[in-house]
UniProtKB/TrEMBL annotation:
<protein>
    <recommendedName>
        <fullName>GTPase HflX</fullName>
    </recommendedName>
</protein>
<comment type="subunit">
    <text>Monomer. Associates with the 50S ribosomal subunit.</text>
</comment>
<comment type="function">
    <text>GTPase that associates with the 50S ribosomal subunit and may have a role during protein synthesis or ribosome biogenesis.</text>
</comment>
<keyword id="KW-0963">Cytoplasm</keyword>
<dbReference type="InterPro" id="IPR025121">
    <property type="entry name" value="GTPase_HflX_N"/>
</dbReference>
<keyword id="KW-0479">Metal-binding</keyword>
<comment type="similarity">
    <text>Belongs to the TRAFAC class OBG-HflX-like GTPase superfamily. HflX GTPase family.</text>
</comment>
<feature type="domain" description="Hflx-type G">
    <location>
        <begin position="202"/>
        <end position="387"/>
    </location>
</feature>
<keyword id="KW-0342">GTP-binding</keyword>
<dbReference type="GO" id="GO:0005525">
    <property type="term" value="F:GTP binding"/>
</dbReference>
<dbReference type="InterPro" id="IPR005225">
    <property type="entry name" value="Small_GTP-bd"/>
</dbReference>
<feature type="binding site">
    <location>
        <begin position="254"/>
        <end position="257"/>
    </location>
    <ligand>
        <name>GTP</name>
    </ligand>
</feature>
<feature type="binding site">
    <location>
        <position position="235"/>
    </location>
    <ligand>
        <name>Mg(2+)</name>
    </ligand>
</feature>
<dbReference type="GO" id="GO:0005737">
    <property type="term" value="C:cytoplasm"/>
</dbReference>
<keyword id="KW-0460">Magnesium</keyword>
<keyword id="KW-0547">Nucleotide-binding</keyword>
<dbReference type="InterPro" id="IPR042108">
    <property type="entry name" value="GTPase_HflX_N_sf"/>
</dbReference>
């Protein structure tokens, strides 16, 4: 396994940069930067300071206004900061200009996510997918170069193809890209065959935002030992296990987690990982209900699932980490007004989602094994329906 900068002495320092506007107010922006900080932490860097600016449209040349950029520049210089991480994707020319101004590494969200994937990819398949995504990210940014930086410095954002980009030209990268694509097509075929060989058992896929507890749940259901940890993107490769609930067998797969603004290059190259989702009969959409942004997480997962045509599948919503769920207490309750969501109790959420999902919503704690029986019953109900249609002569029920 690849270790991501374990010792604190090896960790890099970073400042985060985000904007506040009509679509993301101060609170939203802070939540997004929390997530960015978690990503930065996963990649191995400590955040020294956050910079935000109220800005409806980012500056085309420098993203933020020049006054703000000066402020960041002097902070970076004074505190010897290794890199500035921007919450939004920067255009190639913005990247180039900002690097010249700040004189430190400049990463955007996409770059950071690609870097984490690169460090965490364990199988040759995952590595090939990440490498392809990195080259595709790099290609339009080739003119930028890291000329004013120490070229072989390495570290976050410099792993993978970034290191050799100076010696490489566009043509070579394009050749690389087509080679990698060929390689992936080959592996895809093998994997499709493997999936085909799994027979006709009902397939259930765990999907959900990153870090919600999919692998933990997989381990509980399949009594397996899949890596689960408090890092973003702990899982990059799909794991499949056979699970039996009351004589009813089915296949359960654990997949890569989703994230807001998943880089398009990654969606593209992880398509085959998502084949697992595409070919599933049932989806278990896991949600971390203790996260303040969980409703938005649900939406961004549904968006990605929509892109791979998964919306029509029977879905069970699993709200995990109920042990950590907290809500605010309203000071006065006006019976005429609908209560804001931040005041909702778990029971309120349960009522809403049970009716929305026609009963297919379960509230659990995978960690504490709370309500696992209820989850098993719900899965049984959904899976047995498909199973008995597929194997009409087999009365597995008895
Ligand atoms: N308190 C609490 N923590 C949980 C629960 N379920 C999982 N966790 C923790 O949440 C963290 C993430 O769990 P994982 O199972 O790795 O999450 P994942 O969805 O597989 O994450 P990725 O593979 O990164 O997408 C771990 O630290 C788990 O121990 C729960 O019910 N309660
Ligand atoms: Mg996982």
């Amino acid at each position: 396994m690849i270790e991501i900068k374990p010792r604190s002495s090896e960790r890099e320092t970073a400042v985060l940069v985000g904007i506040i506007n009509r679509w993301q107010d101060e609170e939203k922006s802070a939540e997004y930067l929390d997530e960015l900080e978690f990503l930065a932490d996963t990649a191995g860097s400590d955040v020294a300071k956050r910079f935000t600016q109220k800005l409806d449209v980012p500056h085309p040349k420098t993203f933020l206004g020049s006054g703000k950029m000066d402020e960041i520049q002097s902070y970076v210089k004074e505190h010897d900061i290794d890199m500035a991480i921007f919450d939004d994707e920067l255009t190639p020319s913005q990247l180039k200009n900002i690097e010249q101004m700040l004189k430190c590494k400049v990463l955007d969200r996409t770059n950071l996510i690609l870097d984490i994937f690169a460090a965490r990819a364990q199988t040759s398949y995952a590595r090939t997918q990440v490498e392809l995504a990195q080259y595709e990210y790099l290609l339009p940014r080739l003119t930028r170069m890291w000329t004013h930086l120490e070229r072989q410095k390495g570290g976050i954002g410099m792993r993978g193809p970034g290191e050799t980009q100076i010696e490489t030209d566009r043509r070579i990268i394009q050749q690389k890209i087509s080679l990698l694509k060929e390689k992936l097509t080959k592996i895809d075929k093998q994997m499709a065959t493997q999936r085909g060989n799994r027979g006709s058992l009902v397939r259930v896929a765990l999907v959900g935002y990153t870090n919600v507890g999919k692998s933990t749940l997989m381990n509980r259901m399949a009594k397996s030992e899949v890596l689960a940890e408090n890092k973003l993107f702990a899982t990059l490769d799909t794991t499949v296990r056979k699970v039996v609930i009351d004589n009813l067998p089915f296949l359960l797969s654990d997949t890569v987690g989703f994230i807001r603004k998943l880089p398009t290059q990654l969606v593209e190259s992880f398509k085959s990982t998502l084949d697992e989702v595409r070919e599933a009969d049932v989806l278990i959409h896991v949600v971390d209900i203790s996260h303040s942004n969980f409703m938005e997480h649900i939406e961004s997962v549904n968006e990605t699932i929509g892109e791979i045509d998964g919306q029509e599948k029977p879905t069970i919503m699993v709200f995990n980490k109920i042990d950590l769920y907290k809500h605010e207490e309203p000071e006065v309750i006006d019976p005429e007004e609908e209560l804001e969501e931040r005041y909702w109790t778990l029971e309120d959420w349960e009522r809403t989602w049970m009716s929305r999902m026609n009963g297919n919503a379960v509230f659990i704690s995978a960690e504490n094994k709370t309500n696992m029986d209820e989850l098993r019953k719900t899965i049984y109900k959904v899976v047995s329906e498909i199973h008995s249609k597929r194997f009409p002569f087999e009365n597995f029920l008895y």
